[in-house]
Amino acid sequence: MKGSKDILSSILKTTQMGQIGIRSILNEPLQPSLRTELRNELREYDAIEQEAHGIAKERGWELKELNPAIKGMTNMMTRTQLSYGELDSKAAAMMIRGNTRGIIKGYKNLNQFPPSDQQVNALAQRLIDIEEANNHQLQGFL
Predict the structure, then answer these.
(1) What angle do the packed helices 87-112 and 32-59 form, to 10 degrees?
(2) Which helix (H) or strand (E) holds 53?
(3) Which of 83, 116, 128, 131 has the largest count of CB atoms under 10 Å?
(4) Distance of alpha carbon 74 from its chain centroid, rounded?
(5) Which of 3.40.190.10, 1.20.1260.10, 3.30.70.240, 1.10.10.10 would CATH assign to domain 2-141?
């Protein structure tokens, strides 16, 4: 079961990173349609995070969470990357890069560990699917 716990911790960290990234971008003056898209993505990450916590609680697992220092670094990087150029396009590109990292991590997790836990694997696949769909939605803002 160690593999499933590791996958669940990775899901948790990925959703937390997505939430931090979105919240840091939402502080910027974005066009309303991009702001709406990012808020929708934030809700999706919140829902997956809550489900991951629920699974861990049912099983008595303590999950590794995202390092709190990441939040400060992310906010600083966001301000730097969005300080020049077309804001909406840069914000969308940042989110697409983040989603792509999450997709890669998700596939690595699913391929690295045996598929012994259907509930955890289904949540991991759902996160991958959401991030792929988010990338598609964000392409229009590039």
Answers:
(1) 20
(2) helix 32-59
(3) 131
(4) 13
(5) 1.20.1260.10
Angle at alpha carbon of residue 73, lines to 70 and 75, rounded to 5°: 105
Q: Which two tokens stand for residue 107?
A: 């596939």
Q: Which residue has the tokens 């906010």?
A: 75
Q: Where are the domains of the chain?
A: 2-141
pLDDT tens for the chain, 142 residues long, are: 458 899 999 999 999 999 999 998 998 899 999 999 999 999 999 999 999 999 999 999 999 888 888 877 887 888 788 877 789 999 999 999 999 999 999 999 898 877 778 999 999 999 999 999 999 999 999 9
